[in-house]
Amino acid sequence: MRKFGSDTEAERIVDTYGHMLFRICLVILCNEKDAEDAVQDTFIAYLTKSPVFNDSEHEKAWFITTATNRCKNMRRYHFIRRHADIHDLHIYARDDSYHDLLEQLMRLPFKHKTAMLLHYVEGYKVDEIAEILVITSSAVKKRLQRGRELLREKYRKENPYGI
Q: What's the rounded Cα separation, in Å, for the pair 151 and 103?
């Protein structure tokens, strides 16, 4: 277990990655309490495994990978209790412009929403997403393409007259 001389390192990690990881987990799990649990488990994994990082990007990728894997495990074993009310997403958005995007992302299949969240909300490039999700760049591009298509289809169904 990692021994800290002070709480400053743990505070830095939580301050740096806490909100981002919570948003990612919330979109994947659609449940506030499960998202909090997944983020907490991610930080516990960091404290117990004491990984060594090459740079800040490697550190960030490790946290995202660990959190998304935890979310996959939670979904796989049906630990999801209730779904978050999609209309309350404005509470979790960094600003109001992300609210609609988060709402639509929550409705997509897991593999599409993860790639789209990392690309469009968190700003990762295709190659970076491929590394984080351990898939090929072409698979990421296909997931982004299919995710955009699904969003377009949903938008057309909800707004047939462009209103």
A: 11
